[in-house]
């Protein structure tokens, strides 16, 4: 064996080992629980009555995309290798044009793929967006930079007013964050409103989010199915303290929820806080300058 051959065979072994390690790593991550969820932020499949369905749509779309991707890459590599230019080849290879069956094939297949994805996405979206008469209505009022929650439940009107992030003095203090309470297994209607600029309501573990526009109400209907503490956030860049526009979500038993409601004042916060947060913000900036 010449030294050149030895170098080549060593190189081949190294490539094989690397390929094996990469495949192994891929397989290992493929088995993890996170991978099975498609790295979605819901730890439980059934956090709400929608999360399972949304997770399936996401994961199955990934599997389909990966399968199609692998097939396409394999075909490309096969063409490159099998039809490469050989040593004795001269001139151009045989040219193909106006091959009707081929053209129908590569128009039809992608069309079918898009239609299939559309069908499943549309199905899921219809189910998720379906209006449900809910015993609990939470009118969420976003403001720069906090949240107010108005609860309408069993004839009671209660509200919680969140401290605005720029007024709390310290940033990111968990106790200062507004908390949204929800009873487990009770359908809830969120009425999403904004008082000032565009915000967006997102509870990552619920896999649903929706924009909040001034002068227009958006709706989310869902049923929390697992008790626990979750995090919520504004997911639309809405100004200086956007990153602190956070809230907690407590999904509790129905009796705990009714007890909690009793601790809240009666009433409903509507548009009356309009523009107030922005004025206060300017004032506090002016104080700092002195
Ligand atoms: Cu916001």
Automatic annotation (TrEMBL):
Family per similarity comment: Belongs to the cytochrome c oxidase subunit 2 family.
Keywords, in A-Z order: Copper, Electron transport, Membrane, Metal-binding, Respiratory chain, Translocase, Transmembrane, Transmembrane helix, Transport
EC annotation from Swiss-Prot or TrEMBL: 7.1.1.9
SUPFAM superfamilies, sorted: Cupredoxins, Cytochrome c oxidase subunit II-like, transmembrane region
Protein name from the UniProt record: cytochrome-c oxidase
Gene name of this polypeptide: coxB
Main location: membrane
Organismal lineage: Bacteria, Bacillati, Actinomycetota, Actinomycetes, Micrococcales
Location(s) in or outside the cell: Membrane
Comp. bias intervals (Basic and acidic residues): 268-279
Ranges annotated as spanning the membrane: 61-83, 104-121
Domain Cytochrome oxidase subunit II copper A binding, first and last residues per copy: 133-263
Bilayer topology: Multi-pass membrane protein
Main enzyme class: translocase
């Amino acid at each position: 064996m010449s030294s050149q051959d030895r170098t080549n065979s060593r190189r081949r072994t190294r490539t094989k080992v690397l390929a094996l390690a990469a495949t192994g790593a891929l397989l290992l991550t493929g088995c993890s629980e996170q991978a099975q969820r498609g790295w979605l932020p819901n730890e439980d499949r059934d956090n709400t009555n929608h999360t399972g369905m949304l997770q399936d749509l996401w994961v199955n779309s990934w599997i389909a995309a990966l399968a199609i991707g692998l097939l396409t890459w394999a075909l490309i590599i096969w063409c490159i290798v099998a039809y490469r230019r050989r040593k004795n080849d001269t001139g151009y290879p045989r040219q193909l044009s106006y091959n009707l069956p081929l053209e129908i094939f590569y128009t039809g297949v992608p069309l079918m793929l898009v239609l299939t994805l559309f069908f499943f996405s549309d199905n899921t979206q219809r189910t998720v967006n379906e209006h449900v008469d809910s015993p609990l209505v939470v009118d969420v009022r976003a403001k720069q930079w906090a949240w107010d929650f108005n609860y309408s439940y069993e004839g009671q009107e209660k509200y919680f007013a969140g401290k605005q992030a720029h007024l709390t003095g310290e940033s990111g203090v968990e106790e200062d964050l507004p908390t949204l309470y929800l009873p487990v297994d009770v359908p809830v209607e969120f009425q999403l409103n904004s008082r000032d600029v565009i915000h967006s309501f997102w509870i990552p573990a619920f896999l649903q989010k929706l924009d909040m526009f001034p002068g227009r109400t958006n709706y989310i209907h869902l049923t929390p199915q697992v008790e626990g503490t979750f995090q919520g956030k504004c997911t639309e860049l809405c100004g200086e303290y956007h990153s602190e526009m956070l809230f907690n979500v407590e999904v509790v038993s129905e009796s705990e929820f009714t007890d909690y409601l009793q601790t809240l004042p009666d009433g409903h916060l509507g548009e009356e806080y309009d523009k107030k947060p922005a004025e206060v913000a300017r004032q506090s900036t002016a104080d700092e300058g002195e």
